[in-house]
UniProtKB/TrEMBL annotation:
Keyword annotations: Disulfide bond, Glycoprotein, Glycosidase, Hydrolase, Metal-binding, Signal, Zinc
Record carries keyword Hydrolase: yes
GO molecular function: hydrolase activity, acting on glycosyl bonds; metal ion binding; sphingomyelin phosphodiesterase activity
Organism this protein belongs to: Mycena sanguinolenta
Cofactor note: Binds 2 Zn(2+) ions per subunit.
GO cellular component: extracellular space; membrane
Name of this protein: Sphingomyelin phosphodiesterase
Any Pfam family: Metallophos
Residue sites binding Zn(2+) 1 per the record: 148, 150, 218, 405
Length: 574
């Protein structure tokens, strides 16, 4: 059926666009590897040069004609994100390094490019005799880690839960009159979180009485083809108010890739873009000030969403970084052939915050949305971040992320060529999602040593009533980087233990089979805090197919952006 559609659409487009349209369709059909992907960018560039309107029309008609997504999804997403891609293509050489990175982000092609060498400058060398933080065995502090709540404030009980869009459970214009599967009050695995589910999470966190909480981002729901600035703003404000009304202890939040509009898109200062996500920083600066204080709130507004704040009563600082400037799916990162090592100065900000922490004799936690080790983080910036981590290793007591929707961890080593317990220097703990789209809703509770600020015990906790009576471990075993490394050694030899981990990734909610190859890749990825060291590097076309199937390393957040649309188009044209 798509074929008839396609002919009709192509006919309409040919009348409207002529040779450029024909060249675009043919380029989509031919796209198979790096050179053909670059040729596709060339065909898109020709149209972009005639203006945003033509670009949107051509791109959208091809998306609909090929049946790459529902027509409203094609139309909405390309209208929101298309102008950014067109802007990129007008400014770059379509056979240069930036174009190759764009092919990597869009289609998983041209993935191998060497790291652009950059030595992060530090204000001071590492101290030769660093301050020691020694546990006095005092009772632990409890901290809650929430992530990826993705609250759909238009969730409609009784609407269709079984639809063909990225999320369901809403009254869409093309919803059937009588749903095949009516949405129930407390959520569905095809839908983002209803408000009641978020209330349940926050009430359970409050009941467990943490000293403070961290939130690693992604408030806004996944109907990304409909989300413009007004909705993103009210969604962010509503969750700030919801947290404030339910939680008595402070919460330290960070910004996720869904917390702007269009999704993923945070412009660089060098782009001089009118829509540079400043509305996000304004909104969160105002909404978070009650927890992080006025100085940090000022930083959120003036440092592209990053800030640092002291935890009241503790010698611990929370440094929140906006990781979206290192995210491959942020298409503002591709609007110049000039290589920028540190877009918007986030790495420089991190260095300054860590140096101040070291100078004060305190310790820091880094929180952010996107963990640095996965293939969706730019290898350059992941490498530079790792340099910062190694320099301030004595100061950084913990690192916490979200984004994958899974309950995971990534280990950093002093020498990635020799991944041993002795060389394990840090770990990034990745919190599971509340949204039920990729597993059962969950959050984490950590026990923290009040002298070292290391995690000494952690237990996944679910906001369902049944878990309320679940016993929690109170052992004070430090969960050190070496501990996590040793756990990967167990996973490599003990199939039962590994399969338990595989089940717990999604809290049993979306378990995908993991064979020996997958096990090997999964363990490799646990040992990769730098994205250059993970084993996800896709072969040409691999990532494209992977996105359309339920793969093991499917990124919970990224499935519905521009890359998904283009991948589906290329696949449909085959
Ligand atoms: C575009 O990039 C390619 C590959 O780096 C280079 O050979 C070519 O000269 C560049 N073209 C322009 C106009 O800069
Ligand atoms: C979901 O919808 C499809 C048609 O779009 C139908 O074949 C399927 O049976 C439905 N599933 C449920 C659980 O109703
Ligand atoms: C910025 O975004 C708003 C709302 O999403 C839109 O109306 C406006 O056209 C955009 N401006 C530019 C310059 O892209
Ligand atoms: C890192 O490990 C590799 C492999 O064991 C070794 O050859 C190399 O010398 C080590 N590098 C450093 C800086 O110790
Ligand atoms: C990790 O394993 C090594 C080798 O078996 C052992 O010496 C070390 O004590 C273990 N470390 C932790 C923290 O479990
Ligand atoms: C493998 O792991 C399972 C689950 O943790 C454990 O019960 C079992 O004793 C382990 N087997 C060995 C040989 O260590
Ligand atoms: C994964 O496979 C590679 C190649 O066969 C092997 O060298 C490596 O040791 C394996 N890693 C694990 C964790 O099993």
């Amino acid at each position: 059926m798509w074929f008839a559609f396609l002919l009709a659409q192509v006919f309409v487009a040919l009348v409207a666009g002529g040779a450029a349209t024909e060249a675009l369709l043919s380029a989509v059909q031919n796209t198979d590897d790096c050179p053909t992907c670059l040729a596709l960018l060339g065909a898109f560039q020709t149209i972009a040069l005639t203006g945003d309107d033509a670009f949107i029309v051509e791109f959208t008609s091809l998306c609909i004609g090929l049946g790459a997504a529902d027509p409203d999804v094609c139309t909405g997403l390309i209208e929101l994100e298309g102008p950014i891609l067109a802007h990129d293509l007008r400014l770059i050489n379509t056979t240069g390094q930036t174009a190759e990175k764009l092919c990597d982000a869009l289609l998983g092609m041209c993935v191998t490019h060497p790291i652009n060498p950059f030595t992060v400058p530090f204000p001071k060398p590492a101290p030769s005799n660093p301050k020691k933080f020694i546990s006095r065995g005092r009772p632990p502090i409890r901290v809650a880690h929430l992530s990826d709540v993705h609250i759909d404030r238009m969730y409609t009980i009784g609407s269709e839960a079984n639809c063909t869009k990225p999320i369901c459970c809403r009254d869409f214009a093309d919803s059937p009159a009588i749903p095949t599967e009516p949405a129930l009050p407390n959520g569905n695995s095809h839908c983002d979180s209803p408000i009641s589910l978020a209330d349940s999470l926050l009430e359970e966190v409050e009941r467990l009485n943490p000293q403070f909480s961290i939130f690693t981002g992604d408030v806004v729901e996944g109907a990304v083809w409909l989300v413009a600035q007004p909705e993103a703003t009210t969604d962010l404000q509503a969750f700030n108010e919801q947290m404030a009304s339910k939680l008595t202890a402070p919460i330290f939040p960070s910004i996720g890739n869904h917390d702007t509009a269009p999704v993923n898109e945070f412009a660089r200062t060098t782009s001089n873009a009118a829509n540079n996500s400043q509305f996000v920083f304004d909104t969160q600066s105002a909404g978070w000030e009650q927890w992080i204080g006025p100085t940090a709130a000022f930083e959120v507004d003036h440092n592209s969403g990053s800030y640092w704040a002291k935890v009241p009563g503790l010698d611990l600082r929370i440094i929140a970084v906006n990781t979206q400037y290192w995210y491959k799916q942020n298409f503002w990162l591709y609007d110049s052939d000039v290589v920028q090592p540190d877009p918007n100065g986030i790495i420089a900000f991190l260095v300054d915050a860590l140096q101040a922490t070291e100078d004060a004799g305190e310790r820091a936690w880094i929180i952010g949305h996107i963990p640095l080790g996965k293939e969706d983080t730019m290898q350059d910036q992941s490498n530079y971040y790792d340099q910062v981590l190694q320099r301030y290793i004595n100061t950084i007591a913990g690192q916490f992320f979200g984004h994958s929707h899974k309950d995971q961890f990534e280990i950093a080593y002093s020498n990635y060529s020799e991944q041993t317990a002795a060389n394990a220097v840090s770990v990034g703990l990745i919190g599971p999602a509340l949204t039920p789209t990729s597993g059962n809703p969950a959050f984490k509770f950590y026990d923290i040593d009040p002298d070292t600020f290391s995690v000494v015990d952690s237990s996944p906790t679910s906001p369902t009533p049944s878990s309320k009576s679940a016993p929690r471990g109170l052992r004070m075993n430090p969960l050190s980087p070496a501990f996590w490394h040793n756990l990967t050694e167990v996973f490599a030899v003990n199939e039962t233990a590994f399969q338990m981990f595989n089940t717990f990734l999604s809290r049993g909610g979306a378990v995908t089979a993991c064979d020996a190859d997958c096990q090997n890749t999964t363990i490799c990825d646990m040992r990769a805090f730098r994205s250059q060291d993970n084993c996800d590097t896709p072969t040409p076309g691999f990532q494209m197919r992977r996105r359309s199937t339920t793969s093991h390393e499917h990124d919970g957040c990224e499935g519905s952006g521009l890359a998904h649309i283009l991948s589906s188009m290329v696949e449909a044209a085959k």
